[in-house]
């Protein structure tokens, strides 16, 4: 194997490796054939999306078939090295070639890049370049790195969870620096980090935090939660040969083991640091076990930017220099809402920090809309009103109840997007078919919904003009953007179409409101139920958006 300390020959070449290559060459000359492991390898330089260049080394296996997508192994070098370091210092190229993997190793924006965002952008560009020319399996992209590059697989994965890719299926860290801020202070100063991140941890903490696998001192500024679904191999040199990096690995393992799907901590049988402690075949065996799941049912995210994170698209309150923290999951267990019949599908959402809105792609999750209703348990946090959008809802809901009361702060469009506005914590029951609520209330109501017309923009003069078609008596309510009822009334049954004026209080200010109507042949609701801010009836209804201009 290609071990460990270079002798006086070419950089990264051992006497054992030289003898092995000479032996294979001799066999080839005697037999008149190529060695058993023949492949194509080359070095390429491309212009990146940042306008600079990236130089990288690629190996294509002998078994490559353009009709069969194959795994891609990406190597991240040590501090001060280059794209050729992994090839010269390890056996990863040979072992990957035996397995039919493509291998790539890059330099980065500099030889001391510390896995920063610019270098991550370079790697994305190189992956895209390879995908345009070779059959890469996007579900089997593996990363391995040493020392400075040791944590890169987890760091890249933490920052790249968009199913449009690229994403990491599994990663291995050899003597990795998991927390750049911690390592900076362990050394007293690190000029290469200052150059890579644009300052010290005190000057640019956000850059250190989002380019680290974990921030041990402050979990709210750490992206390690993003790696709960990333299979991770952590290794370091035997005994005391790799002490600082052992501690980084052991501390990361202690945090990840309770929450991660798969994390392995291993002391190498080899003394040394970085590539020197590589157990290549064991690591490749580990990586080969895993195929990416780009859409896990449960996600926990601390995002450094807006955009797609698995099946959620994030809008931040403050998109500059701050993280946004949220959890979301889809459950298929049999559930019982507190005030409704049993439902079988549930979405749970928790907006923890700096989340203005989330769009959840239920269609990509293949969310089964099999029941009359589904449940959304949504905690919008305490930072003010937020929006939750559900994409892929197959029909306009007939009613939404929040904690057993009619909820009106929602819209639906024909693209299948249901958008709810709210704050605080609540249980939302979304009825796609509300007939089970009260069958006696449903006669003629759907036709009424299509016939009902109300002005969408009202210049305030004390009433909303509308056209009420023939139908049963009804109650109406007007809700503000926070879901609070600010006005209500009752209209008698009508034998034919009638124009009506829905009277409003003089205290209403300009803004967007939701007008809700529901059938009530029994007559007006009790005075206490009709009061502004009271809980509404559970009966289904229709909703229209109204903008009032004073």
Structure, explained:
With 550 residues, the protein is of the alpha+beta class. The chain has four domains: 1-36; 39-177 and 227-288, Alpha/Beta hydrolase fold, catalytic domain (Rossmann fold, 3-Layer(aba) Sandwich); 298-435, no CATH class; 439-549, Immunoglobulin-like (Sandwich), CATH 2.60.40.2550. The chain contains twelve helices and 31 strands. Strands 1-2-4-3-5-6-7-8 form an eight-stranded mixed beta sheet, sandwiched between helices. Strand 21 (410-412) and strand 22 (417-422) form a beta hairpin. The longest helix has 17 residues, at 15-31. The radius of gyration is 30 Å and the shape is elongated. The N and C termini lie far apart (80 Å). Mean pLDDT is 85; it is low at 1-37, 439-450 and 525-540.
